[in-house]
Amino acid sequence: MEENLKNFKKNEISPAIMRRLPNYLRYLKEKQKEGVEIISSVNIADDMKLSPIQVKKDIASSSKVQGKPRIGFEVDGLIADIERVLGYGNVNDAVLVGAGQLGKTLLSYTGFENYGLNIVAAFDSDPAKCNIKIKNKTVYPVERLSEIIKKYNIRMGIITVPERFAQNICDIMVEAGIKAIWNFAPTHLIVPDKVALKNEDLAASLAILSSQLKVILNKQEN
Amino acid sequence: MEENLKNFKKNEISPAIMRRLPNYLRYLKEKQKEGVEIISSVNIADDMKLSPIQVKKDIASSSKVQGKPRIGFEVDGLIADIERVLGYGNVNDAVLVGAGQLGKTLLSYTGFENYGLNIVAAFDSDPAKCNIKIKNKTVYPVERLSEIIKKYNIRMGIITVPERFAQNICDIMVEAGIKAIWNFAPTHLIVPDKVALKNEDLAASLAILSSQLKVILNKQEN
DNA sequence: AAAATATCGATATTTATTTATCGATATTTA
DNA sequence: TAAATATCGATAAATAAATATCGATATTTT
Question: Is the CB atom of residue B62 positioned under 7 angstroms from any atom of strand D?
Answer without folding.
Answer: no
